[in-house]
Write a structure and sequence with these properties.
The structure is a single chain. The protein is an alpha/beta fold. Helices cover 34% and strands 11% of the residues. It is elongated. 29% of the residues are buried.
């Protein structure tokens, strides 16, 4: 550990493998370190399993899909119970804000699951104030789309994306358009004058 003087380590939580491994290593080097987990509000499965919780059902779309698990791994539960002080819950808009902050300020492209640690600190600063806090920020599995959003408070899932494809064969155009249409996204063919001379 490059910084054995860290007071708090904030780690994303999905099935529990990442936080369990980090917690064992960090506590071995510094038994006084506080380990804090972070889950997306729609998937608080580890917090509910370890600390009791909301009894709310997990599920639905989350921008933090990499940690969106309905139940934690059985092997990680004892480690989390022994080493993790608490698990913070973050909302979708807080995750989106953290992704945006990392891209704009740190110039890092980070997926939702990797940005939840920053989301937790930015949305609830008091528990971290005055402490040397380190965050695990991981995962670049996010599609970069150059877009212009008029208002940053519009959720990503409500943003509209237009894609224009030019094809040489009419059958290809129809085949391509069927994919999004089958998944509930409107798709239309703009013209059928393929390859006309």
């Amino acid at each position: 550990m490059d910084r054995p003087d860290i007071d708090t380590l904030v780690i994303p939580v999905g099935g529990g493998g990442l936080i369990a491994g980090c917690a064992i290593a960090a506590k071995n080097l510094n038994p006084a370190i506080e380990i804090v987990g972070v889950e997306a509000e729609m998937y608080p499965s580890m917090r509910d399993a370890v600390f009791g919780g909301t009894d709310r059902r997990t599920g639905g779309y989350s921008i933090a899909d990499g940690i969106s698990v309905k139940s934690p791994a059985e092997q990680t539960l004892p480690v989390v119970k022994d080493y993790v002080a608490r698990i913070e819950i973050v909302h979708e808009d807080e995750i989106e804000n953290a992704i945006h902050t990392l891209a704009e300020i740190e110039k890092q492209v980070v997926e939702g699951a990797g940005a939840v640690a920053l989301a937790a600190v930015l949305s609830n600063r008091d528990p971290f104030t005055g402490k040397r806090t380190a965050l695990i920020i991981s995962g670049g599995n996010i599609v970069e789309v150059q877009h212009e959003r008029w208002y940053r408070d519009i959720p990503v899932r409500l943003a509209q994306i237009e894609v224009l494809l030019e094809v040489r064969n009419g059958n290809d155009g129809h085949t391509i358009a069927e994919g999004p249409a089958d998944r509930g996204f409107p798709a239309r063919i703009l013209g059928t004058d393929y390859g006309a001379t």
